[in-house]
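Friendly challenge for the regulars: who can give me the structure tokens for this chain first? No prize, just bragging rights.
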Amino acid sequence: MPNRKKLKITLILAIAIGMGIMYPAHALSPKLELRQVHQAIALTQPKDYAKIKMAQYGWGKKQSKCLNILWGKESAWNHQADNPISTAFGIAQMLGEKSLNPMVQINNGLRYIKHRYGTPCEAWQFWQRNKWY
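First reply, four minutes later:
Bragging rights claimed.
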């Protein structure tokens, strides 16, 4: 495993431990613990969290590359990105998005892409023609 990947995993685990996720004072259900680890990943590495969620849609590397470009153009993957000329906010620049939680923003953005375009690559193709999606 490359050193960079080991460092990233170590950082995520350190954050999770610091948040009391991996070894809480009281026992957590595995489902709740996994959700908390996902929250830690979303806060520190939103692209990695998006890859986890994209797998649930059956989207692989090609779709991940398209999403990376699309949301890179929209917000630079900044969960606090605020569009001054519309109500678009967050990583996916969803209109009317209220949440500051990157995990919620990514979940909402992926659902929107699936519903409206089918895949991130189709959303990216639309963005290239229109400069919005």
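The longest strand covers residues 88-89. The helical segments are 3-18, 30-44, 46-56, 61-75, 102-116, 120-130. Your move, everyone else.
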